[in-house]
Amino acid sequence: MRDTRLVQTAVIGDEHSDVPIILPTEAIELDVFRHAHQQDTFWCGLLLGGCGGQLATKLYVDRQCHFQHNPLPNGAPNTCRRPSVGESSADHLYVKSAMSRSLLEFGRAAQFAFPPPIGSLVDVDLEDGVPLRIHMDAAVEPDWERQGAVILGPGVVPAPDVLAGCPYVYRVRCDSDGASRRVWVGTQSLARPTEWVPFSECTWTDEGLLTPAASRILRDRAAAGSRSAVPGPSAGRGALPESVVTFVRGLEAAQRTGTVDHVRRLCNGSSAFLDGLSSTARAEAERALAEAKAWLATHEEYQRRIFKELEGSVRERRAWDVRAGIQQAASLTRRGASAEEHRILAAARAYLREHDYADQSPAKAALRRPLHHRPAPAAKSPAPAKSKKPNRAKESAARARALLERLDRESDLLADDELAQLVEELTRAANIAGPNLRDPERKRVASWGRKARQRHPARTPATEPRARTKPTAAGKPESPARVKLDALAAAVKTILQKAAATGTTLTWAQIRAQLPPGLPALERNQQTSVLIEVDRSRAGTAPLLSALVTGADHDMHPAYPRIAAAAGRPRPRGDLEAVAQWAVEVSRFQRAK
Question: What do you get for the CA distance between the two ends of the chain, in Å?
Fold first, then answer.
């Protein structure tokens, strides 16, 4: 049997070589190639993920020319399982070769390594310099926290917060150039299109690689650092209007927090806002808008890729990949997602539930069935009624423990109504179990009850303890409503101060779940009054704790403009300025972390 794999790349010398070569596909070009390399041997190199066997060139006039594995000594065909054989399969070796030449021009040296999976990563250990890792594809997620620089290959999309938090990101790509590949280095940033140059136009410093575009970006940032990029409202005559300062800072803050919907709202609603500005103010606002739109495009590309990969994993029933991608996809929906993306996420959750059921033993699967679905016995048991209660209590205890394990494992994968149903079953099983559940288990049951109420808040006025009256300074008792408001405001303030320490936001459901026991229920119609009380007790220049309270979609609370005005903030003129002002306020907590 002949070798039918169309192998286009090989290495020259031996199976351990890192010198790549591409075989021309046309017969006339192959004749020239053979003449130029008549002294060379070609190998299915180990650094290509190959078998290490020797290759021969095969010339065809009616189809594509390619390398072919030599038969085994016993005449059997070669069974190489090399993962990729196309012309891009040796790009990691071409990148290494181009970088080595560039380093030599500057009198530098480096050690190279190719961690698994072969072809995906190139590690470069620079002598007296910052190490770097090149991600040729998306097989390994870049670790932006590790020491060293990161270079991204084709198809590797950086997370939006990466571009928002650094001046630029380096890219690399290879283009065919005869029997070789030409290597290009790109510099990607939020405000500029990616600029590509060959390695020969790059330089090397003590910090590592430096492209011409990166040099310009760093010079511009250094110059901007010596002057105020956005003058404050008190900068004197000629300063930008307060509305423009708020708008620009709001755009920047929304990008830092990764809130896609807010960036999109500010961008889409900016036309009328720009029309009323002077030329100087408009230029500053348009500069900020250009950066925000570039950030938004990058994020949308990143989000599309994540959901496309998740959809493919579900379609191909790859449970491991679905489980790995679903958390990232779910976190993206909390910052804004389309109906189609919500559908993909729901399909992934359904697939994992189906997969988990299929993998369980019959005994464990029985524990997962709701109590009210338990099949009735075929006939009445002759045992006395007394003996049934302890058995049912033990069964309910086992059922409760199984539900606790499932909730701990799958809560992030469950829709709100599914979680509420499971917690309801858990509570019923725990009540029947009685003393068969230990105290720590009962505390976990109570904790899940609070989490379910956090997702599905319910009004329970009949169970609220009555607020006690307390005397005022004049000796007259305060009204129960006032006492209730003060108690709730103090508790909510403590909860928000803890959130402020970590720079996070909270929904009302999350706040309600953290209220100490014994307090009156926090009703929806009390939210504005409570938050006004919370911020009224703080210093006038302190950031507003109420800004940390969001809707279920992490959007600005609808009452925020009223609350901010009550705290002495300028009343925003319209929804656009309100969103920008709120984003700035949230960012003050982010910077204080």
Answer: 67
**Residue entry with tokens 């500029």:** 192
What secondary structure letter does DSSP report for 344? H
Find where tokens 């790059």 sit. Answer: 202
Helix (H, G, I), strand (E, B) or coil at 469: coil
Rounded Cα distance between 545 and 451, Å, is 23
- Mean pLDDT for 124-144 is 84
Q: Any idea which residue has 């929804």 for tokens?
A: 575
Helical spans, DSSP H, in 522-574? 527-536, 560-566
- β-bridge pairing 121-126 and 195-198: unpaired
Q: Give the pLDDT of residue 121.
A: 92
Alpha-carbon distances of 199 from 105, 555, 581, rounded to whole Å: 11, 45, 44
462-466 contacts at long range (C-beta below 8 A, 24 or more positions apart): 463/521, 464/520, 464/521, 465/518, 465/520
The CA-atom distances, in angstroms, between 475 and each of 466, 471, 472, 482, 484 are 21, 5, 5, 15, 18
Q: What's the whole-number mean pLDDT along residues 424-436? A: 82
Query: Are the C-beta atoms of residues 111 and 33 closer than 8 Å to each other?
Result: no
What would the mean pLDDT of 200-206 be, rounded to a whole number?
Answer: 86
DSSP string, 417-440: HHHHHHHHHHHHHHHHHGGGS-HH
Give the integer Cα–Cα distance in Å for 69 and 17: 17
pLDDT greater at residue 89 or residue 219: 89
Question: For the whole model, what pTM was predicted?
Answer: 0.48
**Burial of 87 from C-beta contacts in 10 A (0-12 / 13-18 / 19+):** middle
Q: How far apart are CA 483 and CA 311, in angstroms?
A: 53
Distances (CA, A) of 548 to 42, 454, 511, 564: 63, 17, 11, 12
Confidence (pLDDT) at 25: 83
Nearest to 284 by CA among 252, 330, 315, 244: 244
* Residue 297: count of CB within 10 angstroms of its CB: 12
Convert the pLDDT of each residue in 101-113 to its tens digit.
Answer: 998 888 888 889 9
Adjacency order of strands within the sheet including 54-58:
20-22, 9-12, 42-43, 54-58, 66-69
